[in-house]
Amino acid sequence: xxxxxxxGNPVRTFVDEVWGSIFRHGLPTTDKVAARxxxxxxxxxxxxxxxxxxxxxxxxxxxxxxxxxxxxxxxxITGLFLMFxxxxxxxxxxxNIKDLQFVATFGLVIRNMHxxxxxxxxxxxxxxxxxxxxxxxxxxxxxFNWAIGTLLLLTTLLLSFSGYLLPWDQLAVWAIxxxxxxxxYAPLAGPYTRYLLLGGRQVAQGALIRFYVxxxxxxxxxxxxxxxxxxxxxxxxxxxxxx
Amino acid sequence: MATVVGGGNxxxxxxxxxVRTPRAPLPPLPRPITGPELASPPLVVRRREEEETVxxxxxxxxxxxxxxxAAFVFLLAVSIQVNAPLLQRANLAITPNPAKAPxxxxxxxxxxxxFPPVMAGVAFPSFVIIFMILTPYLDxxxxxxxxxxKVAIGMFTIYLCLAVAFVVIGxxxxxxxxxxxxxxxxxxxxxxxxx
Lengths: 243, 195
Ligand code: HEM
Prior knowledge:
Chain A is mainly α and 243 residues long.
């Protein structure tokens, strides 16, 4: 931001140069500097430069969309850590989880965080949908963003559901058995859908690897893509703001 | 230089509209104005009153940071206190009783108890998803004010309550063979604490 000093400590000058090459702006002392910061920073430019005062009251959004996104990031990070230890094989998965709980440093707390954040995300996404509905924020021009949101809700549920199987304990296998049994009831396609989902007639190795791939690759990618579009649309359609 | 119609504080007419007169004289009109056009003279540009705004950085970013931090601390505290469940290793020969879906799908399981499977497992969920996606296109009411949206809000509230109720029933009031059971919540008569 500031011009490099003409003389003086060369280390200081170097540090200033490096710092200035990363952060191209000073502290937001004036609105103009603040606006430039938001525009030139990759992570901040997801936001508009200015926002309605009424729209960012905590009581308006209750932070719910933002919290859903935050939990998604947290789940990605903790999930990455779990992936270092987890092998999607019926012979090893359960023992891997046990090791995570009792052997790996911080394994227990990371697993707990992943689990509770996943439940939390289902709740925050659900409540976010309710807040959007009650404020009529789905009305034109935001109809399509509501549709994207519905798909995000489904993706969130499926992400949580596919992760449920991975510990390969009694809770996991039977919850997935009950859950996928519901697919069976669709006329004609039902039994085939279930077979496709499980890679067999029972919840076994075929199901585990399918759920694993869905859980760590396919659904997060779909979810991320949908979120990108969701945020883009929120930007383009403008944020509703106070009623 | 805004000319305010309808009185007010100089910012608007109290209904969110400011009427501005243009700075430069407009070019002559191609033809005389008659009839309904007079009702909205083209010489006046109407626009919605600008709402007060603040710069995103730091106002919003700061709030997001705090919210994220609070969520993280809360989650960490919960995760230190409460362990994620892990039962016995999976065994397809032993069916637990009751076998329940994850809680967010237990509502569907509850529906299965009450309706034929094609309805509960397929028709209802598909209907809910499709109806949800179509909601903005079906709701033709342009107003966002709650007092104008009694029907929509009523319908949505009923839906939310039903969804929550079915999940609560499935999780807390269904035990062996998914049969109704008060005792999980209320305890056994004659026993001091709920089992
Ligand atoms: C993974 C799930 C989701 C994430 C991460 C997410 C994130 C967000 C964020 C950050 C916003 C900005 C405002 C706020 O924080 O409330 C937003 C707005 C919005 N979301 Fe979501 N959302 C998700 C799911 C949904 C769902 C399920 C719906 C509805 C079915 C939905 C509909 C909308 C709409 C219509 C807006 C614009 C609201 C306005 O302008 O007031 N979103 N979303």
